[in-house]
Write a structure and sequence with these properties.
By secondary structure, the chain is an alpha/beta fold. The chain has helices at 2-8, 70-73, 77-80, 86-97, 107-120, 133-139, 149-155, 166-187, 261-270, 296-304, 311-318; strands spanning 22-30, 39-48, 53-60, 101-104, 129-132, 193-195, 250-254, 274-276, 285-288, 308-309.
């Protein structure tokens, strides 16, 4: 079926009217994977509605700290010394993103890194939606051995020249996204679009107990580090589909979410729910936007018969949580 889709998609005569009008294929290289880490290079390929390249842009960025895993991205402190700061390229970056769907491989990571950089700069990235090419490859049921970019590239015959170089990774992804998009259009496949919400809070202070790193750098964090308080209510059992959440219910989250995960968990905690880091037979509800994924939580939810809802439905349920039973 996929081969038929790919062939038919080479020049689809009709294009879904619900598809976006333009895309910004993005790749960022960073000092690490944590919330405190910084972007050190960024690339954007702007594509039109059908995935054709319009232009591309690339920049290195001074992270004002140690560059992290140089053996991966190849950017040393010397190479970044004269690079612009993020706030100096933020406006140009924004013009590349504005009015387009952000496309990335593992898009939640790229989006969150970008959103945090804009939060540090006391600004917002002009992005409303994102599309993850991993999720799209699942929608298309591509026969990939894994979800690495190199596997997606190889499937479409795209040659990688400099892995982990933002400009080349963005080029590779743009070239692989175009046939993916056309296959989706030809098959009437729903694009896995997620809402992008900018971060509006930031703290410049170091987390408690953190020491200054190389060059006097002290990590900053999106939200103050704190231990989540224990839920004061007993677990009333599983959520009944179609019913209301009740204070004390154990809720687990899995996969990509539109809202920053910490914020979503905070909302659940404030509503009186117990946020669980893992899934067990006691879990009342699993929240995931990808119920067909093979994550351990989704697999266990199937095994245990744990109810599953998506993020949007969970957001509605949070607005009407039933109080815990007295006594």
């Amino acid at each position: 079926m996929l081969d038929d889709l790919t062939t038919a998609a080479s020049s689809p005569t009709e294009w879904p009217t619900t598809y976006p009008q333009g895309y910004a294929v993005v790749d960022v290289e960073t000092t690490g994977l944590a919330r405190d880490d910084r972007i050190i290079s960024a690339a954007v390929y702007r594509l039109d509605a059908r995935g054709e390249v319009e232009d591309h842009w690339y920049t290195v960025i001074n992270p004002e700290r140690d560059p992290g895993p140089v053996w991966i991205h190849g950017l040393t402190s010397d190479a970044l010394e004269g690079a612009p700061l993020f706030q100096e390229i933020a406006a140009e970056f924004a013009t590349r993103l504005e009015g387009r769907v952000l496309v990335a491989h593992n898009a939640v990571f790229d989006w969150q890194m970008i959103a945090r950089e804009y939060a540090r700069a006391r600004s917002e990235a002009p992005v409303k939606q994102r599309l993850c090419t991993i999720a799209l490859s699942k929608e298309l049921k591509l026969p990939l051995p894994n979800h690495k970019l190199e596997s997606l590239a190889a499937h479409f015959g795209v040659v990688q020249r400099r892995a982990h170089h933002a400009l080349d990774d963005a080029r590779v992804l743009a070239e692989a996204f175009r046939p993916s998009l056309r296959a989706a259009a030809a098959g009437g496949v729903r694009l896995p679009l997620h809402e992008c919400r900018p971060l509006t809070e930031w703290t410049d202070g170091p987390r408690t107990g953190q020491q200054a790193g190389p060059g006097g750098y002290r990590p900053v964090s999106w939200r103050p580090s704190r231990k989540r308080p224990a839920c004061p209510y007993p677990n009333p059992g599983r959520y009944a589909p179609g019913g209301r959440l009740k204070q004390g219910m154990r809720v687990a989250f899995s996969g990509d979410t539109s809202i920053e995960r910490d914020l979503l968990e905070d909302r659940a905690t404030e509503a009186g729910l117990h946020v669980a880091g893992s899934l067990s037979r006691l879990t009342s509800l699993l929240v995931t936007n990808d119920p067909d994924s093979g994550t351990s939580k989704v697999v266990k939810a199937r095994q245990y018969g744990t109810p599953v809802v998506d993020e949007a439905a969970f957001g509605q349920l949070l607005g009407n949580v039933e109080p815990a039973s007295e006594g």
